[in-house]
Input
Amino acid sequence: MALIASFLVAIAIGAFSFGSRTMRGGAVGAALGVLGASLILGSLRFCMFGSEVESTQAVLGVVLAGAFAWMFGAGAKAVLGQKSADLGSGDIRTGSFKLGWYWPWILLSPTLVILVFFLYLPAYQTFTLSTKLTRLGTPIVRDRCLQNFSELLITSPALLVMLPLTSVAVIWGVGLWHRRSEPGSAAHGFTRVIRPFGILLFLFSLYFIFESENGGYQLIYLNTLIISSSIVILSMVIGLGLAYLTFGHVRGITVYRTLLIWPYAISPPVAGILFFMMFDATGGIFAAVADNWFGFNFPNYSTNATLARLAIILASVWKLIGYNLLFFLAGLQTVPREQIEAAAIDGANSLQRFRRIVMPALGPIAFFLLITNLTFSFFDVYGTIDFLTKGAPAGATSVSIYEIIRVGIETGQLGRGAAQSVVLFLAVIGLTAWQFRQSEGKISYGSA
Amino acid sequence: MKKLLALLFAMALVAAACSSEEESAGTPDSTEAPADGEGDAMDDEEGDAMDDEEGEAMDDEEGEAMDDVIEIEMWIAFSDDARLNFTQDRAAEFNARQSGYNVVVTPFDSYNTVFEQTALAIEDGSPPEIIHFFEAATQDALDAIDSNGDPIFKSVTEAVAGRTEILGEPVVLGDVVSAASKYYTINDELFSMPWNTSSTTMFSNMDILSAAGITEPPTTWEGVEAACTAIAALADGPDNCITWPNHGWFFEQSLGQAGADLANNDNGRSARATEVILNSEAAIDYVQWWSDLEDSGAYVYTGTQRDWGGTAAAFNSQNVAMLVYSSSDTTVITDDATANGFDVRTSFMPYNQDRPYVGNLIGGATLWMTNGLSPEEEDGALAFMNFFSNPENAASWHKVTGYIPITNEATALLESEGWYDESPNSAVASEQLDAAADTPASTGALLGNFVAIRDVVTLAIEDILVNDVDVDVRMESAQKEAQGLLDDYNELFGG
Output
């Protein structure tokens, strides 16, 4: 039954994502969808639909079928769309090398070799490994189908499907309501305000699809959400604030700037050690100061989940600020001075000038920083955590990258580690795609 | 023509790039290889080994080819000065005695790291000749096979093959003390060469204890509670009364004391363990007692798992009066206490007075020998391992650290020297192990995926200590998780 469902889903999504309005286009899309679905499910030998396999795996099978149907449908559409654009537009998009057709390939080959051997091949191996049971250092491998994934999730297939779908439906509904309502009406304004919160609703709904039992993935998801979003938001806001402050003409400004940029040169593990030396409850500097000068017991961050998370966030934000500051400073220099002066003459106060002129001009830089900061907070934070808390207390600072290494390397469960890294991969892809969609049309890169 | 020229130019570029790479890779070897007499490649090896194992493996082969000295690589889990220097000094002595051999010691910062790195080296097909594995990795090491299905390690008993001397070094394998040989004997033979072996002992700051009116270190849980109440009443007493690292080993020790098995099939001794038991009454009692002691403020949790450094520092700085710890650091802790001006006494690990005492078990590690070595390499590795634990070396290893003397002859040597009269704290671990009954529970468990299962226990206890969750509920869920890990392991290796 789940098998039939997955092919129905594949047909629908394939046809829909191919985006053709004709009957023939729909059929082609459906065929592409079925092709995509059977490729992925076939490569796993339809193992998730067996009678003794738990139903969460079947649900994941349907999701996989849908995802691949979409990839094939939308991919084909993009390729065909590109082709027709090439034919239609006046720009020169194609050409040939005088020296022969193989020249571009020769010139590209170093990059391609690196990409294939250091990116695509390991990624492919990770995907394969995520469906296996094996240990570090042994050649013995057993098939696990999608169990490495299903054990991260709740056991109820109904909730697993309903929770994300409901939140997506709500977000879609609000969007639709916004477009259909009269501009200027109360509903229009209301939906405009609540629309950006859609992502929060979606993230919130995802929280409940993860296994909550002790040792489950729910805690890891929560940690990652709290720590990563705090790092990104705080470091960007503070970075922008400091850049704005050090942009003006103040005496000794280069000294301030240099000092502020310094932390960026420090590697994440060293940041972890530094903050450990400061905040450690027994041997730390702050503990000594608090104890000797003020006579109170400095709290031990490693036995308090909130403080431990705060320590990780602080150490990472402190390290990232310098980087953000650098880019924001560069960005500020591109803001046209005449516009600011003109606005000032027109009576705009500094806050208004900042919001209406400076912020839009910084858009592209901010977007770039958002992506790089997010990558940092997802991946590079490992070093800081490893030296500061090691995931303590009771896993409260174990974010997804930390858990991947703990599970996959330290306890040698390669398959589980690979499955978790696939989850992280999907999360990063998803977030990046969402950011691109959000920023579409809102960010101007300056050219006409 | 132009085309041809361009192609030639491109080829020349590639060739230049390749040759320059070769040169840069080759240079350090050619300058470093003819180093001075003692220990040849050893010195450069040490430097390389830490950052780059692959490079090191390459160097070895080249070194072997150049002169006829056989390299024996040894990976150990000690990187602190005292233990690493001891090992390197013995290796240097051995290399001086045996001109045809060169033992190279590579340090790693923990047992887990050696375990991980070995797993990776096995995957590469280049494991070292001698590997220092801790007790929890015993089953994993026994089961380890390479891609051809051959075992990774070879039984040292089998390799010794009844010889009493190898390359002139007397074989001491048969003289290993009973607590250690019981633990590591599998199918009636010692598969690996026991080295550092300890037990859990308690260190008491006698200055604080006697200020509170206690003359002898407490031996039972009740005794600890009473002592802590008395110490808490001191006007200028320490912040907390007692601490020990949150390490799965202490949990296992407590099960041994109460005679409870950690796994079925006689703790995995009569047949492969298929069920892990983390929720027995004895286990719940211990974790509950630990948690209650923490709630009362007597026990202090440093907040870090396996925090050997932090707990010892708390004891040294007299922030706690008692420390349950590994006997491996008896010498250091005693010396530090003397330096800090207080009197320290070692005693047995306190046990639950409501259950008959069965016995404490060992902890520590053994030396494993890789399978598939040439006869010369094998003899070199065996000769070194036996030289390394000969009575003099085993005795001085005990003095440097506090690990028990690993052979009966070494014990006798220490007794004849009067060492135990001079340093009574050092005798406690051996006495505790000798006092243990001969049962599977007090021998210790043989269990697959033990390292990961220990992690589950440690995490559950941390959750209980920090978040005050219910002991029964939390241990039940730890039990499920650990059982899943063991099932995974047995699915791979149990067939």
